[in-house]
Design a protein that fits this description.
The complex is a heterodimer.
Chain A: H1 2-23, H2 28-35, H3 38-77, H4 85-100, H5 103-116, H6 126-152, H7 155-163, H8 168-198, H9 210-221, H10 225-259
Helix pairs in contact in A: 3-4, 3-6, 3-8, 3-9, 3-10, 4-6, 5-6, 6-8, 7-8, 8-10, 9-10
Chain B: E1 3-14, E2 17-28, E3 32-36, H1 43-50, E4 58-63, E5 66-67, H2 75-81, E6 82-85, H3 97-108, H4 113-126, H5 142-154, E7 160-164, H6 172-187, E8 192-195, H7 199-205, E9 208-213, E10 216-221, H8 223-228, H9 233-244
Helix pairs in contact in B: 3-4, 3-5, 5-6
Classes of the chains: A mainly alpha, B alpha/beta.
Chain lengths: 263, 248
C-alpha cells in the first residue's frame, strides 16, 4: 500500500515538473496553437480516422500473407541434405536481401518502378505495391523468427518423430513447427507492431492513408495538430498490442518455470 | 529360423572419433539381447544406427532378411518396423498422450482415427495408462512418460524394439514400473535389443548379454556366463566397478 502511494506521488511530481517546464517556456503559446489545437483536432479527426482504416486493411492483409510466406521460407531453409542446397541458398539470399534493403527504397522501387513498366495485367495501385513491399521486407524478418523457433525445438523431438517412420515433412508439420510457432508468437507480434507503423511509409506513393491525410490537413491550415491525431491513431493500436505481447511473454515464462526441465 | 536382426562389420565414427569399430551381432526372433558397457562404449550409437537415425560408415544391417542399409531403401518404411524408446522419453509435449500414440499410425500406416484411437486405448489400458489418455506429457511422472513412449513405439507394431537406457533418466522409485513393462514385453515374445545400466534387470530378462568396450562387442554370452564367469579382463573390471558401486 505504501509503495503504491510512493509510486503514485513520484510519478505525479515527475510529470507535473515536465508539464510545468513545457507550459512555462517562451514558445509554448505558439506551440500550443499549432500542435494542440482543439478545433483543428476535431475537424481533422474524422478524415484521419477513416484514412487509418486503409492502414488497418493494409496490415491485416500483409500479416496474413507474411505468416504463411515467412513460414515457407523458414521451412525451405531447414530442408536437410545436399540435394536441397539450392532451396536453402534461395531462402538465405531472400532473407539477406530483404532485411538489408531499406523499406522505404523498396516501396519506391516497386510502387513507382513496376507500374512504370506499363505491363498489361499487372496492377498499378499504390495500395497493392505498398502491401507487396511490406510483405517482402517483413517476411524476411519473420522467417528468421520462425527459423529461430524451429531450431529451438530440440533435435530429439525430430529424432522421435522420424524413428516412428514419419517423413521429414510430417515431422516438421506435426511435431516441430507447432512447437516452434508457440515459442515465437511474442517476437512475431513485435515484428507486426513494426509493420503496423511502417504502413505510414506507403503514403510516399501517394496513397491517401492516415499519415497522408494528416499531411493534406496540415498543408491546408498550416497547423500541425493533425499529425498528433495520426500519432494517436497508431498508439491506439500499437500500445494494446505491445501490452498483449508482454503478457504473452510473461505467461510463457511462467509456464516454462512450472514445466521445469522437461518443458 | 530367420534372424530378426543381423549386423555385420558395422562401423561408425563422428569426425575423428571411432564410436563403433566393427560390430557383428545376430538377434533371433523373440530373443532379448542386452547391451552393457561403460558410457561412451557405443551402446546408444549402435541402437541409433540400427534404426537408421545415424548413417553408418561401413557394414550391413539386415532386419528380417531385408538389408536396410542398402542404397535406395526407403528409410521411413524401415523405421516403421523398428521401434526405439529413448532415455529422455521424447514425447511430443504439445500433444495429449492419445495423440502421441496415434500420430504415427494415423500418418504413416493410414489408419482411420477410430481405428488408431481404439488400438491406442487398448494399449494404454494394457499398461495401466488408460486414465492418462487425455493428459499432456508434462502432467505425468517420468515413469508414466516412459511407459507412454513405449506404448507409442508399440502402436506401430514393430518387428524389433530398441530400448536405449530407458530407465536412466528416472527417479529410482519409478524404475520398477518401466522394467515391469519390458519384462511383460519379453514374456510376450517381443524381439528386443536393450542398452542398459540395470545389471540385475539384464540378468533377469536377457537371453543374451553383450559387453561393449571401445566400440566393439568384446564378449557375449548368457547372463550366467557374463555375470558369473566373464572371460575377458575388461568385462571383469567393468562388472567389479558395478558391484563396488552397489548396483549388482
Amino acid at each position: 500500500m505504501r509503495t503504491v502511494a510512493i509510486a503514485l506521488t513520484s510519478t505525479a511530481v515527475f510529470f507535473a515538473a515536465i508539464v510545468l517546464v513545457v507550459v512555462r517556456s517562451a514558445g509554448w503559446p505558439e506551440v500550443k496553437q499549432s500542435f494542440f489545437n482543439g478545433a483543428e483536432f476535431r475537424s481533422s479527426f474524422p478524415g484521419i480516422a477513416s484514412g487509418f482504416l486503409t492502414n488497418v486493411k493494409l496490415f491485416c492483409i500483409a500479416e496474413v500473407v507474411i505468416l504463411a510466406f515467412a513460414l515457407l521460407i523458414a521451412v525451405l531453409r531447414s530442408t536437410p541434405g545436399p540435394v536441397f542446397f539450392p532451396l536453402r541458398l534461395l531462402a538465405i539470399l531472400y532473407a539477406d536481401f530483404f532485411r538489408g534493403i531499406p523499406t522505404i527504397l523498396l516501396i519506391y522501387i516497386l510502387g513507382f518502378g513496376v507500374p512504370g513498366l506499363q505491363l498489361s495485367g499487372v496492377p498499378t495501385s499504390e495500395f497493392f505495391w505498398g502491401t507487396v513491399a511490406l510483405v517482402l521486407v517483413y517476411s524476411a524478418y519473420v522467417s528468421e523468427v520462425y527459423r529461430a523457433g524451429i531450431e529451438s525445438v530440440h533435435a530429439s523431438q525430430n529424432a522421435a518423430a522420424r524413428s516412428l517412420g514419419l517423413t521429414h515433412g510430417q515431422s516438421l508439420r506435426y511435431v516441430v513447427v507447432p512447437q516452434a510457432v508457440r515459442r515465437v508468437i511474442p517476437p512475431l507480434l513485435n515484428d507486426f507492431i513494426g509493420l503496423q507503423k511502417d504502413t505510414a511509409l506507403v503514403a510516399l506513393l501517394g496513397l491517401v492513408e492516415t499519415f497522408r491525410q494528416s499531411q493534406i490537413d496540415v498543408a491546408g491550415d498550416f497547423n500541425f495538430t493533425p499529425y498528433l491525431a495520426t500519432a494517436l491513431m497508431f498508439l491506439l493500436i500499437t500500445i494494446p498490442m505491445t501490452r498483449f505481447t508482454d503478457w504473452l511473454i510473461a505467461r510463457d515464462r511462467r509456464r516454462r518455470q512450472v514445466g521445469g526441465v522437461t518443458a | 529360423m530367420t534372424a530378426a536382426l543381423e549386423i555385420a562389420g558395422l562401423r561408425k565414427s563422428f569426425g575423428k572419433l571411432d564410436v563403433l569399430r566393427g560390430i557383428d551381432l545376430e538377434v533371433a526372433e523373440h530373443e532379448v539381447v542386452c547391451l552393457i558397457g561403460a558410457s561412451g562404449s557405443g551402446k546408444s550409437t549402435l541402437l541409433r544406427c540400427i534404426n537408421l537415425l545415424e548413417p553408418i560408415d561401413a557394414g550391413h544391417v539386415t532386419v528380417l532378411g531385408e538389408e536396410i542399409t542398402a542404397r535406395g531403401v526407403d528409410v521411413n518404411r524401415i523405421r516403421r518396423r523398428i521401434g526405439i524408446v529413448f532415455q529422455s522419453f521424447n514425447l511430443f509435449p504439445h500433444m495429449t498422450v492419445l495423440r502421441n500414440v496415434t500420430l504415427a499410425p494415423l500418418k504413416t500406416l493410414r489408419l482411420s482415427r477410430a481405428e488408431a484411437d481404439e488400438q491406442a486405448t487398448a494399449l494404454l489400458d494394457r499398461f495401466g495408462l488408460a486414465e492418462k489418455r487425455d493428459e499432456y506429457p508434462d502432467r505425468l511422472s517420468g515413469g508414466q512418460q516412459q511407459r507412454v513412449a513405449i506404448v507409442r513405439a508399440l502402436a506401430m507394431e514393430p518387428a524389433l524394439l530398441l530400448l536405449d537406457e530407458v530407465t536412466s533418466a528416472l527417479d529410482p522409485e519409478l524404475v520398477a514400473e518401466v522394467l515391469d513393462v519390458i519384462r511383460e514385453l519379453a514374456a510376450g515374445g517381443m524381439t528386443m535389443v536393450i542398452a542398459t545400466h540395470e545389471m540385475g534387470f539384464a540378468r533377469d530378462v536377457a537371453n543374451r548379454v553383450c559387453f561393449l568396450d571401445a566400440g566393439q562387442i568384446l564378449e557375449q554370452g548368457t547372463p550366467v556366463e557374463i555375470f558369473t564367469a566373464p572371460r575377458e579382463e575388461r568385462t571383469r573390471q567393468f562388472l567389479q566397478r558395478i558391484v563396488d558401486a552397489g548396483r549388482l
